[in-house]
Write a structure and sequence with these properties.
This protein is α/β, with parallel strands linked by helices. The protein folds into two domains: about 10-175, no CATH class; about 175-224, no CATH class. Helices cover about 35% and strands about 15% of the residues. The chain contains six helices and eleven strands.
């Protein structure tokens, strides 16, 4: 916190550990897979991935010493930018760059150190493996898992929460919590094709009037 006078510049507050400047990154999975042929969830891939992360931390330490600015590595939640990065990669290295990496063509790269969404891995293993990379993102990081409506399986949810507490610095559980005002249904309300138009539709009564549906669902890093 600081007070500045009228027309006073902020640059002096950037020095001598008063504030931090984050070095964000994305696509660790793609980097490791391209360089080693393996995911960073494997032992060989993890070893290389941790070396990459440590190198970036070392550069931040080097810049801090030289410039007296507190640079720090940040596991960036940049959902929208992942598409821009993928587009730039295709422009620079060819439209088949992702097919060369892992045989899957797509228009996005993976956030920060995260395990890619298409990799077959359970929630506990994902959080455990990502915790090692999260430690090397001291400027900020988040891991998360996607789950269905867990209201009928609270015991499993508590086990995940305990695992988060014992394993990783910061994580979240993303789930759907929806409500239909017409019939009172609570749970997962899916998106369906209604005459060529995608709409939320209550699986209980068929209501597709969005003004009478309360949808709580994480999309692109935001909550709706």
């Amino acid at each position: 916190m600081a007070r500045l006078g009228k027309d006073e510049t902020i640059d002096k507050l950037l020095y001598n550990n008063y504030s931090t400047i984050s070095l964000g990154y994305a696509g660790l999975y793609e980097c490791v897979k391209y360089m080693t042929g393996k995911s960073h969830t494997t032992e060989d891939g993890k070893k290389f991935g941790l070396q990459v992360m440590q190198h970036m931390n070392d550069k931040c330490a080097e810049w801090r010493k030289e410039e007296h600015i507190s640079y720090s590595l940040y596991g960036t939640p940049l959902e929208s930018t992942t598409y821009k990065f993928a587009k730039c990669l295709k422009k620079r290295f060819g439209d088949d760059i992702f097919i060369k990496i892992d045989g899957k063509d797509r228009d996005y790269i993976t956030n920060s150190y995260h395990v890619p969404v298409f990799e077959n891995i359970d929630a506990f293993d994902k959080l455990t493996k990502e915790s090692e990379f999260q430690k090397l993102s001291p400027g900020g990081a988040i891991s998360y898992i996607e789950v269905p409506n867990m209201s009928n399986n609270i015991d499993a949810l508590l086990q995940v929460i305990k695992h988060i507490y014992n394993t990783i610095m910061y994580a979240e559980i993303n789930t759907k919590s929806c409500y239909c005002e017409c019939c009172g249904y609570t749970g997962d309300i899916p998106i369906v094709d209604v005459n060529g138009k995608l709409k939320w539709k209550c699986p209980n009564c068929g209501n597709d009037d969005s003004t009478k549906l309360d949808i709580a669902f994480r999309v692109c890093g935001k909550r709706f």
